[in-house]
Amino acid sequence: MISSLTYCYFTSRKDDIHVARKKLLPISLLDQYQSAGAGYDVLRYIGIADLLGPEKDTILYFMGKRLARMFDIRSVDDIAVFFEKMGWGKIELIKEKRRSLVFYLLSDAVAQRLHGPLEGDFKLEAGFLAESIQFVNQMECECTVAIHRKIHQVEFNVLYIN
C-alpha cells in the first residue's frame, strides 16, 4: 500500500504552465486490481449519479482530471495503456490539428455501455484525457465528448486553450 503521495499540479501564468511532479503512481499499479465490470458500472451509473445529482457531469470531469494527476502519464501511448487497463476501451489519436486533438474510443465494452440499460457517459474519461494531454504537451486543455451511438464510437476533442 502506498502511504504518501505527491501529485502533479498546474498553474497558469500567461503562456507558461508550471508543472511539479514528484511521487506518482505507475500505470503498472493497475495490474494488481481486477473487476468483472458489472459492479463498477452499477456504482458509476447508478450510485454515483444518485450521490452527485445534477452536478454529476461536472464532478466526474474534474475527478478524471484529478485522477490523471495521480498517475505517471508521459505520452499518448501511456494514455492508451491507462484507458485499456481501466477497462475504458481502446483510445486512438485520429487527428492532430494546431489547436486540438481528436481521439476515438472504441471497444466491445464501449458498445455495451452505449446500448445498455444504464445511461452511460464519458465525462470521467474526458477529464482524464484533458489533464493527461495538458501534461504531455505542456499546454492548457479542455475536452469535449461526442457520442456516436450508431457506430459504437465516442469522440473526444481535446482543445488547447492558449
UniProtKB/TrEMBL annotation:
<dbReference type="Pfam" id="PF10702">
    <property type="entry name" value="DUF2507"/>
</dbReference>
<dbReference type="InterPro" id="IPR019642">
    <property type="entry name" value="DUF2507"/>
</dbReference>
<protein>
    <submittedName>
        <fullName>DUF2507 domain-containing protein</fullName>
    </submittedName>
</protein>
<dbReference type="InterPro" id="IPR024096">
    <property type="entry name" value="NO_sig/Golgi_transp_ligand-bd"/>
</dbReference>
